[in-house]
Amino acid sequence: MIWVCVYTSLVPEAKQNIRVFINYAREDIAWAQRLYVDLVQHGIEPWLDLVKLLPGQSWKREIRKAIREANFVITLISSRSVEKRGFVNAEIRECLDLLNELPEATVFMLPVRLEPCDPSFERLRELHWVDLFPSYEAGLEKLLRVMFNERPHKRNLTRVADASSAALGKGDIPKPTRGGLTAKQVVKAKATFRIDVLCFFDHDVLVLGSGHLDENSTRDIKNHRLVRQIEYRHPPTGMDGRFSDHKQTQRHVELGYHEIVIFDRVTGKSLAEANCDSYSTICSADWSPDGACVAVGSVNFLTIVKLNGDLLPKENYGNERRSADITSVAWQPSINPLFGSSSDVCVSNPEGKLIRKLAQMPASVTCVAIEPRARIMAAVDVAGDVMMFNEYGELIAQREGLPSLAGPPHVGEYAFHASRSLEFSSDSRFLAQCACTGGTKGGINIFDVRDGRTLFIDAPETNLLAWHPANPGILVSASADQITFWSIAESD
Is 250 exposed, middle or buried (0-12, 13-18, 19+ CB in 10 A)? Predict the structure, then answer.
């Protein structure tokens, strides 16, 4: 969701939907309450914890959410607050972190002095403040003038989760700790040829390409009741490492070098074919949540393909100085596509136009992923750096993963192909990552998003991953001409 508001005049009872977070020390509660009442009377939506917090709510999370959704933050400064320790300062630090992400000229934090004193934070001292003394009315008028006449700030972020849920913050994903998880090899199966596609259709159909499993391996997998059926496909290219599947409509996408084909799994027939890029290879694709269109990434271009095969005008993310390899695209269940473009992690709108670059990674992005609840977006680069973002696009965690290159990476290095080297489990608890080309430390890293535990599985040359849709503790990996089913569980 993008908020764009323009205010041209200061009038009483103006219904301008300006959201203001009030930060204060407990000793200054009377000032905060008076200011809250006056802001409401002028048509502003202030947020004050004593008024807005409900019984049973997580106050830390709700405060963090209110700060992120605010157009302005008012920080009440007094001799009492500058000497205060505790959460009031944590609120200020979070606001300052947001301020640092904004263009330099943006007006977001409004320091308000209640008496002669200096803010304890150096960054606040750099901002011009408003005094509510000796005349409260004069100070209030200045505040209102700023909030009504300044173009109110609403961070240019895209929320992909339900607005009723509080966004995750940096403290909500614990720091990594080794131990506490185990991986048991359930079945290991050999194929007749290299596995370059690994994914699931529906909840219990395993799809492989191009290698076939022998009869004994197939029987062993079915005897463990891991899948109901195994399907084999032979696409022209395995660049994405999977066929993007839309379970509700039972359709999937297969990639060619320059075109995509949309299949109906009920009839087995192709519904549409679209030529997306005549000059370079298609790398990745994913469905929109409603199954009405597909986002397709190739060198330089992000193309939105409708269900009938029609193309929206494709967006060129390259320039004269360098190409922009869109190596990975994830859309479901977000309302907007997430994609990697060279070293940038980006979000576009449903038409493929750039909304925001979330981060520039140290090296080229190899894979992006969105967890099933759409509250966490993740990306990994060829250096093995893993970044996680909340539904507002804010960086909330970084992890050290498995590199895909032998030497020191640099921006612009291109991985061999955009394999599915980053996957969330169906219950959103685990994030699995492997080196997309086998790398130098062949294996799989598992991150427990809930409690921070990590696990390394020694599985050389693994370059494809797929979590079981119906059993979130089962991970399937592919390396060269074999696949392995792993059971991930807590250690005794």
Answer: middle
Whether the per-residue pLDDT at 309 is higher than 70: the answer is: yes
Note the pLDDT tens digit of each residue in 185-197.
Answer: 999 999 988 888 8
Nearest residue to 346 (alpha-carbon basis) of 327, 359, 335, 334: 359
Return the CATH number at 357. 2.130.10.10
Tell whether 219 and 258 lie within a shared domain.
yes
372 CA to centre of own chain: 11
- Identify which of 262, 259, 261, 303 has the alpha carbon closest to the alpha carbon of residue 281: 259
The predicted structure's pLDDT at residue 488: 94
Which whole number is the average pLDDT over 149-178? 62
**For residue 163, is it within any domain?**
no
The reply to whether 417 falls in a domain is yes
- Residue 129 falls in which region: left (phi positive, over 0), alpha (psi -120 to 50) or beta: beta
- Work out the average pLDDT over 345-366: 88
The Cα–Cα gap between 145 and 143 comes to 5
pTM over 0.85: no
Give how far the C-alpha of residue 404 lies from the chain's centroid of Cα atoms, to the nearest Å.
22
Residues 210 and 301 in one domain: yes
Q: Which percentage of the chain shows pLDDT scores above 90?
A: 30
Cα–Cα separations (whole angstroms), residue 424 to 351, 403, 414: 25, 19, 24
Its domain, for residue 364, covers 172-490
Q: What does the pLDDT look like over 137-156, one tens digit per residue?
A: 999 988 988 888 765 554 44
Which one is predicted more confidently, 480 or 445? 445
Domain count, the chain: 2
